[in-house]
UniProtKB/TrEMBL annotation:
<feature type="site" description="Positions MEP for the nucleophilic attack">
    <location>
        <position position="148"/>
    </location>
</feature>
<comment type="function">
    <text>Catalyzes the formation of 4-diphosphocytidyl-2-C-methyl-D-erythritol from CTP and 2-C-methyl-D-erythritol 4-phosphate (MEP).</text>
</comment>
<comment type="similarity">
    <text>Belongs to the IspD/TarI cytidylyltransferase family. IspD subfamily.</text>
</comment>
<comment type="pathway">
    <text>Isoprenoid biosynthesis; isopentenyl diphosphate biosynthesis via DXP pathway; isopentenyl diphosphate from 1-deoxy-D-xylulose 5-phosphate: step 2/6.</text>
</comment>
<feature type="site" description="Transition state stabilizer">
    <location>
        <position position="22"/>
    </location>
</feature>
<dbReference type="InterPro" id="IPR050088">
    <property type="entry name" value="IspD/TarI_cytidylyltransf_bact"/>
</dbReference>
<dbReference type="InterPro" id="IPR034683">
    <property type="entry name" value="IspD/TarI"/>
</dbReference>
<feature type="site" description="Positions MEP for the nucleophilic attack">
    <location>
        <position position="202"/>
    </location>
</feature>
<dbReference type="Pfam" id="PF01128">
    <property type="entry name" value="IspD"/>
</dbReference>
<protein>
    <recommendedName>
        <fullName>2-C-methyl-D-erythritol 4-phosphate cytidylyltransferase</fullName>
        <ecNumber>2.7.7.60</ecNumber>
    </recommendedName>
</protein>
<keyword id="KW-0414">Isoprene biosynthesis</keyword>
<keyword id="KW-0548">Nucleotidyltransferase</keyword>
<keyword id="KW-0808">Transferase</keyword>
<dbReference type="InterPro" id="IPR018294">
    <property type="entry name" value="ISPD_synthase_CS"/>
</dbReference>
<feature type="site" description="Transition state stabilizer">
    <location>
        <position position="15"/>
    </location>
</feature>
<dbReference type="InterPro" id="IPR001228">
    <property type="entry name" value="IspD"/>
</dbReference>
<dbReference type="InterPro" id="IPR029044">
    <property type="entry name" value="Nucleotide-diphossugar_trans"/>
</dbReference>
Length: 221
């Protein structure tokens, strides 16, 4: 029984504004979805990858990746992951990894899988929050200063015991969590963290894309 990865790549990338699905946008010449899939496979611990693509871009997505399967996604991330998960068979560990976090190092993938194998039902990579964080009211007035101690920013790939993730998605209903660990928490499951990596940042805006390009070029030098 192996490790399968679901790669949600069905978003439209509105905030990046490239005029095409974000996962197809190239970072230093290679589409984000291809980089994300190759990064998972380069870890050596992932046996099977399912990419979840915008329904109208299935062929384009299949052309650029080496993933085993490309399946159509849904209207939001939770729906897309559920559709990918439905295609996973014969795996007792499932990773969910955003195509938009396409520069995640293989070492993070390996440590997430190792933690699931060690018996944790849900594992997320996370890094300390660098900024000072404040809660504000609707008018933008500061309500309180959030103590940064104990605050971590959560990344992907997130790793799960396959049954835990299936139960969490089956129970999700209308709950629209921004990640899969959130769905596990909602059914009372325990989520543990392993050290993430700044390079696993999510490409959301044009600035993020520029940073990703710079990072790839630096690593090639
Ligand atoms: N995603 C998905 N299906 C959706 C929406 C998002 O598979 N219906 C995926 C995206 O492709 C991305 C990941 O979830 O890899 C994280 O989402 P986000 O960064 O918000 O990407 P987009 O939704 O594409 O971007 P935006 O919100 O700017 O439109
Ligand atoms: Mg989005």
């Amino acid at each position: 029984m192996g490790v399968a990865a679901v790669v949600p790549a069905a978003g439209s990338g509105l905030r990046l504004g490239a005029g095409m699905p974000k996962a197809l946008v190239r970072v230093a010449g290679v589409a984000m979805v291809a980089r994300a899939v190759d990064g998972l496979l380069a870890s050596g611990v992932v046996d099977d990858v399912v990419v979840v693509a915008p329904p109208e871009h299935l062929d384009a997505m299949a052309e650029v990746t080496t993933a085993g399967r490309v399946v159509p996604g849904g209207p939001d991330r939770v729906a897309s992951v559920a559709l990918g998960l439905a295609e996973v068979r014969d795996a007792n560990v499932v990773l969910v990894h955003d195509a938009a976090r396409c520069l995640c190092p293989a070492s993070v993938v390996a440590s997430v899988v190792a933690a699931v194998r060690a018996g944790h039902g849900a594992v997320v990579p996370a890094i300390p929050v660098a900024d000072t964080v404040r809660r504000v009211d609707a008018d933008g007035h500061v309500v309180d200063l959030v103590d940064r101690t104990g605050l971590l920013a959560v990344q992907t790939p997130q790793g799960f015991d396959a049954e835990v993730l299936r139960r969490a998605h089956a129970a999700a209903g209308e709950l629209r969590a921004t990640d899969d660990a959130g769905l596990v928490e909602a059914i009372g499951g325990e989520v543990v963290t392993v050290p993430g990596d700044p390079r696993a940042f999510k490409i959301t805006s044009a600035l993020d894309l520029a940073m990703a390009e710079a990072l790839v070029r630096t690593e090639l030098e």
